[in-house]
């Protein structure tokens, strides 16, 4: 009887882990973005977006238009950058160059780009913002800033599963 209970507990824990992973993978396929949902962590796009807002990305359009808000992620940097496209150029017949700027910043982002780059390439963009939910991302920010919360929550979840299994 104890073995059956342990197996049931393991199956429920596996399901609790598998469902969010499957949901995330489905979103990446549908949106074409490696990160279809992100959280704003700076004030550079205020008042359009504030720290803690959740953004929903779409990455299935071939060209970025001026005024859209692409999210770029440079190789080697830990976090993406969410800024508005303020200028676009055609670099050659197959490539677009995009210059961005935060709504709350005074100058464009050329100083933030990797050395020698004047424009972003389309390949550096992980998506364009198509929607947002204000403030809900504070949960993720708190969990990142205070990992002890996550550890306590994980322990409480396991205890709850064990007690109610």
Question: What do you see in this structure?
Answer:
It is an enzyme of class 3 (hydrolase). Its EC number is 3.4.21.89. It is a single-pass type II membrane protein. The structure is a single chain. The protein is an alpha+beta fold and 165 residues long. 34% of the residues lie in helices and 24% in strands. The model has no long low-confidence stretch (mean pLDDT 90).
Please provide a brief summary of the model:
With 165 residues, the chain is of the alpha+beta class. Helices cover 34% and strands 24% of the residues.
* Tally of DSSP β-strands: 8
Helix content: 25-40%
Question: What low-confidence regions span 5 or more consecutive residues with pLDDT below 50?
Answer: none
Instruction: Evaluate the radius of gyration.
Output: 20 Å
- Give me the number of helical elements: 3
Largest sheet: 5 strands, antiparallel
Look at the helices and sheets and give the structural class.
alpha+beta
- Overall spatial form: elongated
Going across the biggest sheet, name each strand in turn: 1-2-8-3-4
Element string (H = helix, E = strand) = HEEEEEEEEHH
Cα(first) to Cα(last) distance is: 12 Å
What fraction strand?
A: 15-25%
- What integer is the average pLDDT? 90
